[in-house]
Amino acid sequence: MTNILIVTSSANGAGSVSGRLAEAHAAQLAEAHPGAKIVRRDVGAEPLPHLTADTVAAIKGEPQSAAEREARALSDSLVAELQAADIVVIASPMYNFGMSSTLKAWFDHVLRAGIAFRYTSEGPEGLFKDKKAVLIESRAGFYSEGDGAVMDGQEPHIRNLLGFMGITDVTIVRAEKLAFGPDAAEASIAAAGEALGAFADGSLRLAA
Ligand SMILES: Cc1cc2nc3c(=O)[nH]c(=O)nc-3n(C[C@H](O)[C@H](O)[C@H](O)COP(=O)(O)O)c2cc1C
User: What is the pTM of this model?
Assistant: First the structure.
């Protein structure tokens, strides 16, 4: 059985382009992987708390206080969802040239030393090597190439975080130019949906 984790992170609820693409992709993956178990984590609708001293203490050692135990339980449950996943789909709206703070908070909770990565005498080693990731990005502007590319603090950051955990099989689909008028937005969303469908049925790999 294939385990699929869908992480969405838009503050825009049902109006979210990345969220809608992720939901359509969940259906595509369910068809391509009969019997797949799909788990959804919407950190846009239900933001995770930022890290605090309690969280750091709780994940570095044995939690001592009630607050530390609570922080540890949350982090453990987020890590467990990711650990169980064969495919993780991350839907990321671009906010201020980066990922949303809610998605960053999710990474802060799951990127745990000793679980997601470890340091060796050779340097860092990611420990989630056998997973595939699909990264769905939505942006008002255009950053894939040209003058805007240098402003993209979203894709390189997310790719680094995934890579640090050992997730290097990353397929990236971008819905861009969403503020370039209805025609451009529609065409971009349709192309992204098609690319995701092709990834789901195995006919296309879009590592950027
Ligand atoms: C707070 C905020 C900041 C944004 N910053 C950017 C930005 O830096 N660059 C950009 O191209 N679009 C930016 N946008 C537009 C969103 O990326 C765009 O609306 C996208 O569709 C959001 O994804 P969603 O539809 O899944 O919520 C921003 C939107 C919001 C709400």
Answer: 0.96
